[in-house]
Design a protein that fits this description.
The chain has helices at residues 28-36, 45-54, 69-81, 102-110, 123-131, 148-158, 174-185, 209-217, 243-255, 260-271, 275-288; strands at residues 12-16, 39-42, 61-63, 85-89, 114-118, 138-140, 164-169, 190-195, 203-208, 225-229. The chain has 289 residues and is α/β, with parallel strands linked by helices. The chain is elongated, with a radius of gyration of 23 Å.
């Protein structure tokens, strides 16, 4: 940007949380911040302008999504150099948490600008506290990889974690992800499918991973979904999986169409077990199919 005058002190970047479904959940502080910002960078300008209009706020609003975030980060940095204030706003929830905003925050920090979070509703925390699973330690893992190999590699890595696990997932992939979670983490692990959080049809469905996988094979959940899975029980916290666990993982990979050789390579890399031992185990499974 040209024609901007550098201020003696850089401005402030506000990371503003908005409601995740119930419009009454946005805070007065969030609205006041949006009212005073020189620029609002919104993941979705239509929903942002609707929100601003509902509260009588008239502010310059521009889009900030994955494809254009590098350019918006440069734009925000240039404005912050002049002492201006910039607000980042997600379509729902908190910017940067499985949403755009991270690059803008990094650019602001590089300029020496203040970064002020305006906290608010969180699907991660709402799902966690409503799940009935332990809340003292948890790990948020965002959206699991879409590709089966990458998703299953991640699940193999987190298998021994004692902390409660929280994921976002598309309703179209819930059944597949629950099946993989059961195969890699243990079918008996307690879990919860939380959907439509804070909305009229909010629902928490609790059960084991096996029970939930069976339910959603023929019943696709509607709306936004957050998955919560119990941590590894004491006996499963050894990084090295048992033969039975390896067989379960191998079946999931074979079902994806991987060859015996590829399954052995993948599991050896992910688990640290000897490839020759895994190959014999997988070959035995393959010949029984």
């Amino acid at each position: 940007m040209t024609g901007l005058v550098k201020a003696s002190h850089p401005g402030t970047l506000y990371v503003v949380s908005s409601s995740i479904g119930n419009p009454h959940d946005i805070s007065p502080r969030a609205l006041e911040t949006l009212r005073s910002a020189d620029l609002v960078l919104a993941e979705d300008t239509r929903s942002a302008r609707k929100l601003l209009e509902e509260h009588g706020i008239d502010r310059r609003t521009e889009s900030c999504f994955d494809a254009n975030e590098p350019d918006r980060a440069e734009q925000a940095a240039a404005l912050l150099r002049t002492g201006a204030s910039v607000a980042v706003l997600s379509e729902a929830g908190t910017p940067t948490v499985s949403d755009p905003g991270y690059r803008v925050v990094r650019a602001a920090i590089a300029e020496g600008a203040r970064v002020v979070p305006i906290p608010g509703p969180s699907a991660v925390l709402a799902a966690l506290v409503g799940s009935g699973l332990p809340t003292d330690r948890f790990v948020f893992l965002g959206f699991p990889p879409r590709k089966a190999g990458a998703r299953q590699k991640l699940l193999g890595q987190i298998r021994p974690l004692a902390a409660t696990l929280v994921f976002f997932e598309s309703p179209h992939r819930v059944a597949v992800t629950l099946t993989d979670l059961g195969a890699f983490l243990g079918a008996g692990r307690p879990a919860c499918v939380a959907r439509e959080l804070t909305k009229t049809h909010e629902e928490f469905v609790r059960g084991t991973l096996a029970e939930l996988a069976r339910r959603y094979q023929n019943e696709r959940p509607l709306g936004e979904v957050t998955l919560v899975v119990g941590g590894a029980p004491e006996q499963d916290r050894d990084d090295s999986p048992s033969d039975d666990e390896l067989r379960s993982m191998a079946r999931a990979l074979l079902a994806q169409g991987l060859s015996t050789r590829d399954v052995a390579d993948t599991l050896a890399s992910d688990t640290g077990r000897l490839r020759r031992d895994i190959y014999r185990l997988v070959l035995d499974l393959h010949t029984r199919r």
